Amino acid sequence: MAWEKQKAVLERRRRDLEARLVGIEMSLDAARPADWAESAVEREGDEVLEGLGAQGLRELGQIRAALHRMELGTYGDCVACGAPIAEKRIALVPEAPLCASCAGGRQPQAGPGEPRAT
Ligand SMILES: [Zn+2]
To answer: Where are the zinc fingers (dksA C4-type) (predicted)?
Structure first.
């Protein structure tokens, strides 16, 4: 399966997040107008400074990981159990690393490719 659509979405969000995070660092650092960013960033005001921080970093990490998995060819598979992530879930959360059952905290069923030491 090709992931061009997801890749485009993820790359756009990654750029957006990175630009905002850089903007936040600049603002916290120097509080001077970031005119370099005007063309590339939709500035959303000061709430971004408060809101993006931790959550934005976490999302950015997930997006980067998802793009990395695309390069490796494992994108779309749950990183915990290896099962394919449902298409509906991928469409909603393209950076999702886990299938619905792993993300829900339930133990994945051991597949044939997962021998368990007893
Ligand atoms: Zn899983």
So the answer is: 78-102
